Amino acid sequence: MKSLTSISWYVSRLRAMTPVEMAHRVVEKWQRATEASFFSSLEGADPGPADARVPRLPDRGSATAELRQQLAVDAVTLQQGQWQLFGWREVAVGSPPCWHRDPVCGVVIDPEQPAYRLNHRHLPDGADVRSIWEINRWTEMTRLVMHGWLNDDLDAIRTAQLWLEDWCERNAPGMGVNWTSPLEAALRLINFTWLDALIQDTPLPEEGVGPIIRETQERLAQRIVPAHAAWVWRCRSVGSSANNHLLGELAALVLTAARWPQVAAVACSTEAAWALLEAEILHQFAPDGGSREQALHYHLFAFELALQAARTVGCKAGPVYERLLHAMDFFHSAAHGKEAWDFGDNDDAQVLPSTLKRESAGAEWREWMEGKSGALQFWLGLPPALVEEEQGWRVHPDSGLVVFRKGWMARLDASALGFGNLAAHGHCDALHLSLWDGDHALLIDPGTGGYYGYPELRRELAAWTAHNGPRPPSGYRTPVRLGPFLQRRPHEVPRLELLASGALAKLTHEGLSFQRHVAVDDSGITVTDLELHGKPLTVSWIWAPECKVVKEEARTLRITRGASTWLFTVEGAGGELRSQSARVSRAYSKQETAEVWEITVAAGRLTWRVTRS
What is the dihedral of CA 154, 159, 161, 164, to 10 degrees? Predict the structure, then answer.
């Protein structure tokens, strides 16, 4: 059965490729097989002198005491080998870390295996490559150097250098799991660019540790920059794989070539990388600013990558600049911030450790977009333009999303499945409604769970049944998920209208026509679900884990969170509310249990309401 599934995956993956991409894959195989000689040709390559203007560093004197203190606290735990992954999971990685060990399950992947022979999608004994990659993006070393630069801690800077030297010793170019993805190398480059700039800007003594830090940094730049930049350029994503990965790869090349112009001899120039990146930004972000990946966290990730590159080249006008302003506005509109429960995939990735705290990244980015002071404003300066929170309905027609904000926050999805032929990061969430009352999440999108190391949870949380859009009682047969990042037979793009009475979304799929109307007033939310031919429909509601749900009457639930309560009522022919529990995941690999209530009505019409009690 496993071999048949594998064959099906390869066949479907080929169908997603154009003839040009198929030809490139043949070239890619040859590139992988010749990587040893490729990296040998780079030995002795010199990145040349660094441009001290890239990246633009802030004025140290403007840092707040809160930021300095948080960096100092983080530096202590990091140097003890106690790291926090994905903003929540505390793990012991060692000092220096074990770079090839999944810190969650403890499995170590052979570092002596050529990368092209490793199948990072299927690592042994349940290891998850995303968890391994998380400790190899060098954000923790950048965080240490941020602390050292701001708080005059040369020991922390020295620790970061020693860890990078250890990484280079144990991760020879082209060997091991950390050389299987160009995006991972690109994220290391972005962090190293910032790390190098901070170290070079740090006042160092003329004797003692000062010369050691200078000489070590020169060696690290020579060892890291040419190999990483040349490999990212050579192996950059193409065709159906060219999603946020390509954005990251090109953004890294923009920064790297701008700081070390001589690197263009083995990779590309800043101008060449930026020209390609401009086209990708316009391709991957819709005119209304939404990421075509249909995954809100990846939207922020892609925006941060593009922002880093745009700051580097001084992009302050034109179509790309305008598209990034729309992207910023879209995130601010669609993200709740405090209790996110984002739609689509979410692996809690960050580009740079620029927020005050990783676990509050979404809220901090929204505040930065509003022009509020904080860690992001210190590192990045003011946003290109300030975003104001609009009250009432806000429609994003190109991305298929409508949002209401005024006390309540309601987010109705009427989007395509995902981006390109793979729809890699999209979920079966058409007509799903997420609901918050103030800071409290009530009806949630269940999250992602995980990727390669969590295949069953991934399928479960991306499915129709994990979202509250109306569906046939027997379920849908499509889309078909053939792997963590491959879906076939997507649903049609729903239709979305904003009426005087509220928001209306319609989905026609597998011979059925469903529509959802959402109206909001001061007291609550009223939703009417229809199957336009009068056929039965089922709706399942997943409540936030903090919610306690009690059935008071046959069709009435009382929802309690702390001192707040709400009433949930349903109206429709036949059917009774029934409950069960379900797994949900508010952060990558984090699993919680939530209550699910479901009803099936025979006449194809259901009205339900959430009101404050």
Answer: -160
Question: Do 420 and 243 contact (CB within 8 A), yes or no?
Answer: yes
pLDDT tens-digit series, residues 500-530: 999 999 999 999 999 999 999 988 999 999 9
Measured between alpha carbons, how far is 124 from 121 in angstroms, rounded to an integer? 10
The amino acid occupying position 504 is L
Are 96 and 166 spatial neighbours (Cβ–Cβ below 8 Å)? yes
Strands 401-406 and 392-396: antiparallel
Q: Would you say 254 and 312 are in contact if contact means Cβ atoms under 8 Å apart?
A: yes
Which residues, 6+ apart, have CB-to-CB distance to 362 below 8 Å? 297, 300, 335, 336, 337, 338, 340, 342
**pTM, rounded to two decimals:** 0.96
Residue 241: what pLDDT? 79
Mind giving me the DSSP string for 56-102? PPPPGGG--HHHHHHHHHHHHHHHTTEEEETTTEEEE-TTTT-TTB-
Alpha-carbon radius of gyration of the chain: 25
What single-letter amino acid sits at 86?
F
Look-up: residue for tokens 């070079």? 200
**Alpha carbon distance 219, 195 (integer Å):** 14
Q: How many residues does the chain have?
A: 613
Classify the phi-psi angles of 244: left when phi > 0, otherwise alpha if psi is within -120 to 50, otherwise beta. Answer: alpha
Helices 209-234 & 154-170, crossing angle to 10 degrees?
Answer: 40
Q: Which two tokens stand for residue 249?
A: 């790869």
pLDDT in tens, 268-302: 999 999 999 999 999 999 999 999 999 999 999 99
Phi/psi at 503 (nearest 5 deg)?
Answer: -100, 140
